[in-house]
Write the structure tokens for this entry.
Amino acid sequence: MWKTKLDSSPRCNLYRQFEPIGCVDSNGLLTYSSFFPNSYFGFNRRHLFVTTIWWPPFTERFIKNGTTVNYFGYCMDLLRELAKALNFTYTVIEAPDGEFGALLQNGSWSGMVGQLERREVDLMVATTSVRPDREMVMDFTIPFYYDTSTLLMKKPDPNEKKLFILAKPLRWEVMVCTAVVLVVSAFFLCITEQLSPYYKVHGTQGQQDFQHSFWYMFGALLTQGGESVPKSPSGRTLVSAFWLFSIVLVGTYSGNLIAFLTVPLDKPPFNSLDEMIAQSEYKWGTIGASFYVTWFNSSTVDTLQAVWAGIKKFNETDPEVLSPDPNVHIDKMYRENYVFFGDKVFMDIRKSNQCDLMTAEEEIPNNYYAVGLPNNSLYTKTFSDQ
């Protein structure tokens, strides 16, 4: 290339020499020199239209006077870093229908996926799951977040089962065994009293029959005892053993009752999809026009097919079970017995802000979010590398 000689004559101050324009290291990494200035300036401040969707904590709206003036959250932080690294500006918009994207009957897509398919936007930065059917009309970068799915529901009302709160400290097996021990002990006390030689010497006054034995031992379980106490040594020995049993049982019961009243144990009505589809008290739903619809609809797993069959059945009379707005599903849980299936991060945020909500124990690792670009984009690798 031509360069200027500092000590040359005014008539000829140019000369030609080779200039390095880049170098390749042993790992195959190519480094450009200033000969290619655009390699340092990315998109050269090109303005991009970016679509997103409201989904806390990844994308949230900053609203002023009823109008969205800005966005913030994990996805917006990611977008800001991409714009800084690749040197572009952007305008954030939302899909008019507020959907992630579902395949329509005419073969086109709705939501944000449809915007990319029609090339109405340049970039999609949102909690959009990577799916093979979506990759037919758009490109995905490498995932930037991995998440699981779970069930969100309202905690059962403790006032509905107050009648049985006194029976909670002991399992039903313990209560049945206690009843059996009471009857058997009363029977043995009666037999012992009848066969005891004590009453042949001192008379039958104070001798226990079955009725008196039963009510005395029943009173012992309530730590009250009774008026008629056996007088024979064998009867008193049996009654003393039963009193020790009663004291231990009542102490255990009282301690558990105090624990139940102090720290109530909120157990969900079910903890998995299999348990959910096996009951008929609750309805369930998910975000409409999302990857969950495609996942349930195309799955060959019996449990997922049963979940989707239930959603379709409920949707015939209640379209809210496939509403694209998560707030609709949350409100529905407060009006009726309803379960919302979705992203665990979103569920945890709602559960932490609303203490009367709870999640199931089962978690399904099926979500991975990525940045979306138009189909066959030349910049997919560029964004993935960042």
Summary: The CA atoms of residues 329 and 340 lie 6 Å apart. The two ends are 33 Å apart (CA to CA). The longest helix spans residues 233-262. The first strand starts at residue 2 and ends at 9.
